[in-house]
Design brief:
By secondary structure, the protein is of the alpha+beta class. The protein has three helices and six strands; from the N terminus they run ββαβαβαββ.
């Protein structure tokens, strides 16, 4: 994976190389998870990444989780998606990082 950086909250996220991915490439697809439960979101992310990895190996996709402001409790989608990207879907992910607004992830698919 890419280098690691320390985020403002102290967690570590893999990051893209020296070129800003937003400036380097446009996402080939976006998945918006707003309003979904964790279970629905997990299924959607798995299907989305597996489909786009076959269609665009090495492509950049955007998964929008939101910041959790609309949640009745603590935000859960961003953490659930991060866990998927680092465990179950690690084979499909070359690298990932929070998007600039920190409301989702930019994911470089494995080739």
């Amino acid at each position: 994976m890419g280098r690691k950086k320390k985020s403002r909250r102290g967690s570590r996220h893999p990051v893209f190389g020296d070129v800003d991915p937003l400036l380097d490439a446009r996402p080939v697809a976006t998945l918006d998870l707003h309003g979904q439960t964790v279970g629905q979101a997990r299924l959607a992310v798995v299907n989305f990444l597996e489909t786009w990895r076959r269609r665009e190996p090495g492509g950049l996709v955007h998964i929008v989780t939101g910041k959790g402001r609309g949640s009745s409790g603590a935000p859960v989608l961003r953490g659930a998606v991060k866990r998927l990207l680092t465990t179950t879907l690690a084979h499909a992910v070359q690298e990932f990082d929070l998007d600039l607004e920190e409301g989702g992830y930019l994911v470089r698919l494995s080739g």
